């Protein structure tokens, strides 16, 4: 079983992995072949004016499109799984962070790991130096290990 400190270190890695999966999905979506067609149409109600509608969709006759769609479906399943894991982990850690007695420790851990800010951004938000934020983070992590 992971300790709270180990779980804290997992949050940024999970966020990064989710970002990588999203980029892979977008890359595959860009490679899918689409087809378009124009069809004659009319309005549903009187006066039934004729028009043309352009329909765009996946070209499933193209073998690469089918393969890309299968890869995308698989990656989307993995992405949803990682997102659920991230939410569960963050919720569990928020409870442990809330139990810390020192407000500064709670703020540092929440900003750094739950909200995903860098140490420099956390220092700016808290109006502390980077060194103070590092020290508070180490103290808070040590308290979570106890």
Question: Mind explaining what this structure looks like?
Answer:
The chain has 2 domains: 88 residues, no CATH class; 47 residues, Arc Repressor Mutant, subunit A. The chain is 68% helix and 12% strand. It contains 5 helices and 2 strands; from the N terminus they run H-E-E-H-H-H-H. The protein has a two-stranded antiparallel sheet. The two termini are 15 Å apart. The mean pLDDT is 89.
For this entry, give a set of tags.
Arc Repressor Mutant, subunit A, 2 domains, alpha+beta, RNA_pol_sigma70_r4, 146 residues, single chain, two-stranded antiparallel sheet, 5 helices
Q: SSE layout and pairings?
A:
Layout: H1 4-31, E1 34-42, E2 50-58, H2 63-98, H3 103-114, H4 119-126, H5 130-145
Protein name: RNA polymerase sigma-70 region 4 domain-containing protein
GO molecular function, one term: DNA-binding transcription factor activity
Domain RNA polymerase sigma-70 region: 103-145
Number of strands: 2
What count of helical segments does DSSP give? 5
Q: What's the rounded overall pLDDT mean?
A: 89
Helix content: 55-70%
Concise summary:
68% of the residues lie in helices and 12% in strands.
């Amino acid at each position: 079983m992971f300790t709270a400190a180990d779980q804290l270190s997992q949050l940024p890695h999970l966020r990064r992995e989710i970002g990588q999966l999203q980029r892979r999905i977008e890359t595959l979506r860009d490679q899918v072949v689409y087809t378009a067609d124009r069809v004659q149409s009319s309005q549903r109600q009187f006066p039934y004016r004729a028009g043309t509608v352009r329909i765009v969709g996946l070209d499933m006759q193209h073998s690469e499109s089918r393969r890309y769609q299968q890869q995308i479906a698989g990656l989307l399943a993995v992405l949803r799984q990682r997102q659920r894991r991230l939410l569960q982990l963050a919720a569990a850690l928020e409870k442990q962070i809330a139990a810390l007695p020192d407000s500064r420790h709670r703020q540092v851990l929440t900003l750094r790991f739950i909200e995903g800010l860098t140490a420099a951004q956390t220092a700016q938000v808290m109006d502390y130096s980077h060194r103070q934020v590092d020290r508070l983070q180490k103290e808070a992590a040590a308290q979570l290990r106890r």
